[in-house]
Amino acid sequence: MSRIESLTPREIVTELDKYIVGQAEAKRSVAIALRNRWRRRQVASPLREEIAPKNIIMIGPTGVGKTEIARRLAALAQSPFVKVEASKFTEVGYVGRDVESMVRDLVEIAINMVKNEEKERVEGLAEAHAEDRILDILLPPTPHGKSPLSESGPEDSKSFTLVTSDDNQLGGVAAETESSTRERIRQMLREGKFNSREIELDLDETKSMPMVEIMTTSGVDDMQSNLQDAFSKLFPKKKKKKKLKVPDALEALTQEEMERLIDMDKVMKEALRRTEESGIIFLDEIDKIASRQGAHGPDVSREGVQRDLLPIVEGSTITTKHGMVKTDHILFIASGAFHVSKPSDLIPELQGRFPIRVELHSLGKDEFVRILNEPENALTKQYTALLDTEGVELVFEAEAIEAIASIAVDVNERTEEIGARRLHTVLERVLDELSFDAPERTDSVFKVSAEYVQNSLKDIVEDHDLSRFIL
Predict the structure, then answer these.
(1) What confidence tens digit (pLDDT) does each residue in 133-144 have?
(2) DSSP state of 139
C-alpha cells in the first residue's frame, strides 16, 4: 500500500492547502470521505461490501474552489476522476447524453491511467527492443554460426551436413567481430551520431474507422465505439513503410514495443477494479436540474434526469464495452451555486444519497491576497515564469497584490460574483502592455507597484458600464 492511500485526514487537508485557499469545512469533508475508503478496505468481508461511500454536495457561488477541491483530491488519491455537468444530461426519451455515459467515461479514464502506468513500467524494456530493431536496420545481422549443422547443401538444398571445426572457428570469429561492431554502432546511436540519418521501417498503420451515427435513446456513445471496435477486427492492422530520422524512428518503435509488451487483459481488469473501488464522479451544476417549486416553463426533463441519476448514485450495474461496472462504491461529489433553487428542491430520494452537505463561502480581499501569494500554482508565480522566458524578471510588490485583490473584490460586488476567477481578468489587464512589449524590452527587471495597478485599471474601474464588459 502506497503512502498516498494511507494519508490521514489532516495530511490530506495539508496537501489541499498547497493549492486551495480557505474552505476548511469542505476540505475536511472530502478528506474524511477519502480516508473512509482506506478504512473500508481494512474491514473484513462481508461487512466491507455493505459500507457505502458518503456522497457530498458542495454549495457555493462560482469561483470559490468547488471543482478544484474535487480535482486535487482525485489527483492526490490517484483515482479515476471525471467531471460532468449535470445540465448536459436529458431524461431517457429526449435527445442528449444519457446519465450512464459518465460511468463509461470514468472507465475510459481508468483504462488510460492504468495503461500509462504499465507503459512507464515497461518503458526501459521497450526502448531496448526498439534500439535493437534500429541496429538491425543500420547493421543487418549476417547468418554466421547459428548452428553447428549446415542448413544448406549444394544448390541451396537442405542437407544438414556437419560443419567442420575450421568452419566453426571462422564462424565464431565472424560472430565475435559482428558483436563488437554492433556494440560500437549502439554506442554511436546513443551518442546521437546517427540523428541526421533517415531510415525506412515498417510500422503498424493506424487506420481511421468509418464513423457510424446511431440514433437511439440510450447508450449511443457505447454503441458507436462498439461498432468501431468491430470494424477494427474486420480490418486488422497493416504494416506501412515509413521513412523517418533515427530519433523519430526510435520513438515510434518504442511506442509500438510498449503497446506490444502491455497485457491489455490485465489493464482492463485493474481499470474496472479501480473504477468500482476508487472512482470519483464530480457532478457540477446539479442545481440546474433541481425543479424549482412553483416554476413554469421548459422544466420537463429536470426531474426525469434526477430519477435517471438516482439508480447510479444508489448503486447499480452499468454495461460498458469493457465489462460490467458496479457503481455501489464510486464516490459522487455534486456541486452547485443554488442561487435560484435550493438542495431541498431535489427529489427526496436523491437528497438522501448525498448525506454530507458543505457550504463554501464567498472569497474576500484577504483570501484573494493569499490566493495570489500562497498556492504552488499561484497566478503571480505563473506570470513570473511566463515572462522569465522573455528574459524579464517580474516582481510584484506587496502593495500591488493588495491593490489587485481590492479591485477584484470591488468589481465582484458591483457586477457579477465570479469569485477567484476575477483575478485572472484583472491580472491579465494589468500585465497586458508588459506581455505585449516583453520581447522588445531592454530592462531585465519589471516591478509591478500599486500605482501601476491603479493606473492600468483606472478608467475601467471608474466606469461601471465599461467594467461590466472588460472585467
Answers:
(1) 888 887 776 655
(2) S
